Amino acid sequence: MNDTTPHVLIIDDEKIALVNLTHVLEAEGYRVTACSDGQAGLAAMQKNAFDLVLTDLRMPGINGMEVLQHIKSTSPEIPVIMITGHATLDSAVDAMKAGAYHYISKPFRLAEAREVVRGALELRRIRQENSELKQRIEDISSQTTIITQDLGMQRLLETARQIAETDCSVVIHGESGTGKELLARYIHQKSLRSEKKFIAFNCGALHEEIAASELFGHEKGAFTGALSQKIGLFEAADGGTLFLDEVAELPLLMQVKLLRVLQERELMRVGSVEPIDIDVRIIAASNRDLKAAVKDGKMRDDLYFRLNVVTLTLPPLRERREDIPLLAYYLLRKYSVMMGRDVQEISNAAMERLVEYDYPGNIRELSNFIERGVALTQDNTLDVQALPQSLGALTVRVFTPEKPAAPTTLQEQEAEHILSVLKMVDGNRTQAARMLGIDRVSLWRKLKKLGIDSM
Fold first, then answer.
1. Residue 277 predicted with pLDDT over 90
2. I want to staple 314 with a disulfide (CB 3.0 to 4.6 A). Which of 53, 58, 178, 184 is the partner?
3. Full-prediction pTM beyond 0.90?
4. Buried (b) or exposed (e) across 70-107, using 16+ Cβ within 10 A?
């Protein structure tokens, strides 16, 4: 037997029943601990971990219902099968209501007992797997590690780590889908407020009254529909961090109220005249240029200057292509776990498609591609067939000013050196990349940029 062998506890004051059940279950390959009374059974549970308990209902001293109640209060995940020689409808109903998995009566057939035990252990296994899967998904979902090997992103993260230890306000700027909330969570976790709450609020497309209620809370009767007092997000985040996404979309009057809260560190709920002290760090974000929003009259300049102590600009994914393979494999593991799939690899052809695409939707769009790919993949390798056809048929490009077409002397030297290394390793790109001190994707990009035919 190994550690994965199910361990069954049997409690029965009838010696023949105890011996017979022990013999049958051991013959099935289970580990069995047998106890002749409830007190001994509970003592055994303190010393050992069991996957299933079978207990007689009527025993002297601690009876089966008391054993059941103890298990449900201390180890509710363990299924319990009740056994009795006094079968009545009332006792069966009481046992099931108290949480018993099944109910069998003496004299029972051993084949029936085997089937009931198998069913209970299968239920236990499924519950354990679901619990482990849920925990793994929660671990993945709660991660704030930002995956990157891009030098610009690494410098940005170093700045984020430095300002996290202060309490200054931060503005995060970046296109939609670049991970602004993720960076905000990263700053929160690196700060002295990490043990307190992080609350995110999207300021876009909300009526002024609703936005005020959400941020500042309201008193009962403050407006039509305010049937009870409500705590706002500022109060809920007290001691922690409040992330205001798309802050430039707040109505101008709301911007005035927000500025006052930031300056005075106190607020009043809608419909109240009593100020409430608050201690909240603000991290704001926008996919718009806030300076331009101020110039266009969409954002108050005093609020802009109050928020904009430090600005962090997240680059779009097309400007950090070296990160695409890392992100793709991270997302592959994430969605494989979430969907219960065993997709472990991404084919070279599929990866080239992913790296070449320009991602107007940034990381969010890459995430959608990988999620779709995992759902459609039938084996352990995500291939081009599982990716959207647009990745091959239509490459979205973001146009930037063209560089001079004629290669410089440095480019010619670089091309010559790369060709020389490729020749040395018989065209093996992986070995060539290692010799050049770069990764395979960077080599592929250089070859494409230099116009060198693939080998």
1. yes
2. 178
3. no
4. bbeeeeeebbbbbbbeeeeeebbebbeeeebbbbbeee
H or E segment at 277? Answer: strand 276-277
Domains and CATH numbers, the chain: 7-139 (3.40.50.2300), 151-315 (3.40.50.300), 318-393 (1.10.8.60), 409-450 (1.10.10.60)
Q: What's CA 154's distance to the chain center, in Å?
A: 22
What integer pLDDT is reported at residue 444 of this predicted model? Answer: 80
| pLDDT digit string, tens, across residues 216-248 | 998 888 887 778 888 899 999 999 999 999 999
Sign of CA dihedral 94, 98, 99, 104: negative
d(CA 440, CA 432): 8
Task: Using a pLDDT cut of 70, give the percent of the chain over it.
Answer: 86
How is residue 248 annotated by DSSP? G
What is the C-alpha to C-alpha distance for residues 109 and 114, in angstroms, rounded to an integer? 9
Cβ contacts of 218 within 8 Å, gap of 6 or more = 212, 226, 229, 230, 232, 269, 270, 271, 272
